[in-house]
Amino acid sequence: MRIYILLFISLVIVSCNKHSCAPSDEIMAIDVNISIKRLDRELFSAKEVKSMEAIISENKDVADIFLGRQEFPSDSLLAAQLIRLFDSPGIDTLYHEVQTDYDDLGWLEDEFTLAFKHLKHYYPDTKIPEVYTIMTGLSQDMYVSDSVIIIGLDFFLGEDAYFKP
Predict the structure, then answer these.
(1) Which residues are bridge partners to 26 per DSSP?
(2) Per-residue confidence (pLDDT) for residue 159, from 0 to 100
(3) What is the DSSP string of 114-125?
(4) Are 82 and 48 in contact (CB under 8 A)?
(5) Closest to 38 in 3D by CA, of 153, 152, 129, 133
(6) Is pLDDT of 163 > 80?
């Protein structure tokens, strides 16, 4: 199912431009509104173990899938590891580059909204997944399932990035 959703989203994004593929009024009337949760900013701004633990606790699925939560005996150890990671000078440089390139993700929210309107049109019972952005220090790029999409923004900085995957 994941591959079909990703393929469908890719086709909608790649195949349409403003002149040749305007969505029908019927598709535009479908109520879908994607809001991307910026975990990259939340994780980087946490400077104490307790605040990092709170972020992990609020986002357990993402922590399990993308941060390897199950590999740590407690959330406090994972939180301490993440704080050490985000305190390193290289990660600081990477984070600022991500924020410069991806400060406003309104365009991506619009693209996901349109893609999922199309998906809902053809498959009305489809559940719309939560969409998160994250930065992992170039350890993971993307995860897609029927319930969550996680995008590692640090993997998509392009050719001119200071650090490359």
Answers:
(1) none
(2) 78
(3) HHHHHHHHH-TT
(4) no
(5) 133
(6) no
Contact 86, 44 (CB under 8 A): yes
Identify whether the C-beta of residue 100 lies closer than 8 Å to the C-beta of residue 109.
Answer: no
Beta bridge partners of 149: 131, 144
Distance from C-alpha of 110 to C-alpha of 98, rounded to nearest angstrom: 20
Q: Considering Cα of 144, then 145, then 146, then 152, what sign does the dihedral take?
A: negative
Condensed to tens digits (0 to 9), the pLDDT of residues 39-81 reads 999 999 999 999 999 999 999 999 999 899 999 999 999 999 9
Query: Could you count the other beta carbons within 10 Å of the beta carbon of residue 95?
Result: 20
Instruction: State the CB neighbour count (10 A cutoff) for residue 53.
Output: 19
Report residue 21 as tokens. 């593929």
Q: What is the DSSP letter of 127?
A: P
